[in-house]
Amino acid sequence: MIKISISERLKEKYKEYFNKYKNETDTYIKIKEELTKVAKNCEEMKNFVRYFCKDNKLKSGYDNKKIEDILLGKIEDFNRIIKEMEPRIPNKNKKVKYNGKEIKVSEVIFKVFNYTEFSKIHKFGYTFADEMKVDVCPYCNRQYTFTVKVKGKTVRPQFDHYYPKGLYPYLAVSLYNLVPCCSICNQSKGEFNTKDKHIFYPYEDDGGKKFKFQTKPQDDDFDYFMGLGDKFNIELIPNEGVENKKEIQAIIDNLEDAFKLKSLYNKHKEYVIHIIRNSIVNNESRIEELWSNYPEIFDSKQEIIEAIFMNYIYPKDWGKRPLAKLTHDICKEFGIISK
Ligand SMILES: [Zn+2]
Predict the structure, then answer these.
(1) Distance 148 CA to ligand 1 centre (A)
(2) How many domains, in total, are found in the chain?
(3) Where does a domain end: 67, 98, 116?
(4) Which structural domain range is residue 248 located in?
(5) Which residues have C-beta under 5 Å from ligand 1, the single-atom ion?
(6) pLDDT(170) > 70
């Protein structure tokens, strides 16, 4: 729902992790070592290893570009990689012989793209989360996801695999496949296949601008418009002006499937009632009055509105506080803000 980004510095740090020896000029040496082990120990996975080789030949050596695309590619790279990779590994649950033992294909792939090791060694999860400074879950915008370290113990967001690692194990440590998010979203999404059922991809989609929350009366009872009662539901609908309304509606439906987003937002009705009541009491003339009475406190009328509603209003700040997007949409619906 809310767009996030990764700094160049973090990308460099991330690359270092896969270049095992500091003085080594070769890149991605760690991945190459693991690929070589797989080729040596598992006859049935040679076709998988060949994918990473120049001219598809084991003896030609590895193609850095192929490895880089997996580790640092974005969603269009993932889509291409999935298309190219899937015929090579049709069944990830199939057991194959690895060094004499029977193990699942997905586990062989995890030896190369080892998320468990990746997240443990160098406390990468903490470093990644701390540098990204994603303070609110980008999927739901309902939970804080601060990162802190106290006496060696850390609290941080979880990392969701945007394309699930159970279905696409070769994307298990792909930087742009890792989305810092709240534990509720991570658990709820699980193995939901975002490849087939699109949701907003937080590294590219400013999803929150494409749909809006809106109240809808139950039984044509509009009393809640006066701040009375709770006979309304909270709907998620495509925003005015979006070109592909059908596509956005499908994403909204998928957000319900993956995160139960609409159902969860309907648990915030009490919060919405407070916004509605606040919008009745603090109408335009009240805001004007505060603006002229307290010029030393507020720099703009926007700041007054944000103080009254205890949240950030405009899209650029939606990632700063939970429910900021909901607050914006309801304030707009009830005429407190115009855009
Ligand atoms: Zn969340």
Answers:
(1) 18
(2) 2
(3) 116
(4) 207-333
(5) 137, 139-140, 182, 185
(6) yes
